[in-house]
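User: Please fill in residues for this 380-position structure.
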């Protein structure tokens, strides 16, 4: 018998007459022993993940008809109905909450303190017991949060749907980019099958990116707690990843079906769906530190002409782009070189071609941490 269930959760209104809802689609039973959670469109202007979800639902519907779903799989294909309604002069502006200016994928709940308080004296010499105790404390801590605005309610709701997930994939995209994955350092190399199956050109590791993105709200607490309770076994219980499905314009049935198939095979290999997945493809590139990512910034205003493309490996000092300003006074200022400082794999650059001083134009994954990056490793 099919197990698919569709629930629509209404958000508190942000204005008189406002009504927004979150659609939560669940396959499999909730007592099946493990749970995977996937969402797309938290940055509401990023559509490749929504397309992948559409294609994944077709695969899961068929698997469900055949009775192959073995564990719970929860999908939120459109995770941000607030951002999805933020049209501005015929452009969807879905990255920041217009009411507060806050990035929808930053500032997610940090629950280490209330959870540590709740579990004190209740842990044992048994990692599974501790996982149950910590998840129960997480549920209480999330429920106790009083959200102040609609975006706060949304963040709390998204966390409440996934705090007990063993796998949580947050599907995003960059501007113009190769497929890449952000993961917590302690999840590597256990999560290498995810990067390999997705064909991730880059996997970026950080224990704390400094921005409290959604995936870290789910995963980071599992390596924060062992620092507070070193005498008890606590294992990373949530493989949470931010998956960047290439660039903002990379939306097609080919990409969508390919990504959905890869997610399906990953879940199959992890036991969520019956059947045998094909052999795991080779990992395209060993994971590198998020702290090793160079953000190449513009020194001056103008039009950007990229000389390098995503996928090219650069050496320190290579010219990534020219910034062209036809009305600059001197010849030197009319065409300005933008060079890489450290080198590595160019994996993303902006989708438009405008520079202002300080704007991040390109991202380059180096193999080693870059000195002086500070605590904030993500873009705004
Ligand atoms: Zn995003």
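Assistant: Residues filled in for all 380 positions:
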């Amino acid at each position: 018998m099919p197990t698919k269930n569709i629930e629509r959760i209404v958000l508190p209104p942000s204005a008189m007459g406002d009504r927004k809802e979150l659609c939560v689609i669940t396959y499999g039973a909730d007592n099946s022993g493990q749970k995977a959670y996937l969402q797309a469109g938290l940055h509401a202007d990023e559509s490749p993940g929504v397309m992948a979800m559409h294609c994944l639902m077709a695969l899961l519907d068929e698997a469900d008809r055949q009775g192959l779903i073995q564990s719970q799989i929860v999908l939120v294909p459109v995770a941000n109905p607030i951002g999805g309604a933020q049209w501005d002069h015929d452009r969807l502006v879905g990255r920041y909450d217009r009411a507060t200016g806050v990035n929808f994928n930053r500032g997610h709940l940090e629950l280490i303190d209330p959870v540590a308080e709740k579990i004190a004296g209740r842990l044992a010499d048994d990692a599974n017991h501790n996982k149950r105790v910590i998840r129960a404390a997480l549920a209480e801590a999330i429920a106790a949060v009083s959200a102040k605005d609609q975006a706060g309610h949304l963040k709390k709701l998204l966390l409440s749907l996934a705090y007990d997930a063993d796998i949580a994939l947050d599907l995003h995209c960059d501007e113009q980019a190769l497929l890449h994955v952000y993961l917590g350092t302690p999840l590597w190399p256990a999560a290498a099958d995810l990067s390999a199956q997705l064909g991730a050109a880059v996997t970026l590791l950080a224990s704390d990116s400094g921005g409290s993105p959604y995936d870290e709200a789910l995963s980071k607490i599992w390596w924060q707690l062992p620092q507070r309770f070193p005498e008890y076994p606590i294992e990373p219980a949530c493989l949470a990843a931010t998956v960047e499905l290439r660039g903002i314009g990379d939306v097609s049935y080919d990409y969508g079906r390919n990504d959905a198939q890869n997610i399906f095979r990953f879940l199959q290999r992890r036991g969520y769906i019956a059947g045998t997945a094909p052999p795991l493809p080779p990992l395209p590139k060993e994971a590198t530190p998020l702290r090793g990512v160079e953000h190449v910034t513009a020194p001056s205003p103008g039009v950007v002409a990229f000389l390098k493309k995503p996928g090219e490996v650069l050496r320190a000092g290579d010219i990534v782009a020219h910034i062209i300003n036809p009305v600059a006074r001197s010849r030197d200022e009319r065409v300005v070189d933008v060079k890489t400082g450290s080198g590595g794999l160019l994996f993303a650059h902006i989708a438009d071609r405008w520079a202002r001083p300080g704007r991040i134009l390109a991202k380059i994954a180096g193999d080693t941490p870059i000195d002086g990056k500070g605590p904030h490793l993500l873009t705004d």
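For context: The mean pLDDT is 97.
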